[in-house]
Amino acid sequence: MRYKRLGKTDMNVSVVTVGTWAIGGAGWGDVDRNESIKAIRAMLDNGVNFIDTAPVYGRGYSEEVVGDAISGLKRDDFYIATKVGLTWQGEDDPIVRNNGRENIFREIDLSLKRLKTDYVDLYIVHWPDFKTDPAETMGALTDLVKAGKIRNIGVSNYDEQMILDAEKYGVVGAIQPPYSMVNRSAEKLMKFCKERDIGTMTYGSLGAGILTGAIRELPNWDPSDTRLNFYDYFKEPKFSKIQQLLKVMDKIAEAHNAPVAQVTVNWSTQNPIVDTALMGVRNPREADENCAATAWELSAEEIDTLNKAIDQYLGEA
Asked: Which Gene Ontology MF annotations are present (predicted)?
C-alpha cells in the first residue's frame, strides 16, 4: 500500500480509501451486511487506513455497518471520515440540506453513536445548503474540533469561492470532489486546493463500477438505481464512448496481467492532485483486487496513452 499526507492535516492516509455509499444499500441493489463487514476488514488487512461514510448512506445504515466492522479494533490504527448536512427527521421524511449549528451538533452525536467511536478524524460538510452563513457552519465545526469530537474539517461539492468563504472562519483540511477517468470536471478545483495545501479525496473513483470493466452492455437496472440517477455513464451516447476507452484499458491491463479495475485505481492514485481515492467494495474479493493495484504502477507512457484516449473519446476536462 502507498500513503500520502492529506493536505495540511497530520493524517498520513492510504492512497485507497474504503468508500461505503453502496453498502448503505439504498438504491444500490442487494447488499449483504456480513459481506460488507468482511469487505471493510479486508481493506484494512491490505493496508488501507481510511474509511469514508455518511449518515445519509442508507439513513444511518452505512455508519452502523462501519461501526460493526471496526468494533474491537485499535482505533488509532485507522482514520474515519463521515459527513454532515444531509438530514431527515422521520424515517419517511425527505432528506434536506441543513448546515446550521444546531443540526451539526445533533448529527455528530448520532454519527458517533452509530460508529461506536468517540471521535472522527475528518468531518465533511456533504453539500452546501445556500441558506446557512459559512461563519455559522465553520464556527460550529471549529467548536467540535475544540471539543475533541472531530479532528479535521472537510467540505464536499464546494466550489473555489465557497472554500475561500469557509476559510475565513476556520481551517479546511480536505475536499471530497467527484473524480475519475469519466469525470474530470473537478481538476481545476483540485489543483486550486493543492496550491492551498488542502487535501483531496475523490469519490466516484471507479465510475460507479463502469471503470472496473465489468459492465460491457447497457444495464437493465431498476429505474430507481442510484447509478442511473446520479451518474450519466450508463446512458447513451456516453456509455458507448466509455466502452471505447475500456478497450484501451484492456490492453494495458493485459500487459500487466491485471484486471481493468487496477488500471483505474493506479490512474487515480498516481495522480499528484489525488491524495486518496474512495473505492466502494461489497465483498473481500473486490477489496483484495482493488488493493493489489498498489503493488504495481502504470508507466508514464501508459498514463499518457490513457489520457489521450480519455480526450479522444470523452473530451478534455
From this structure: oxidoreductase activity
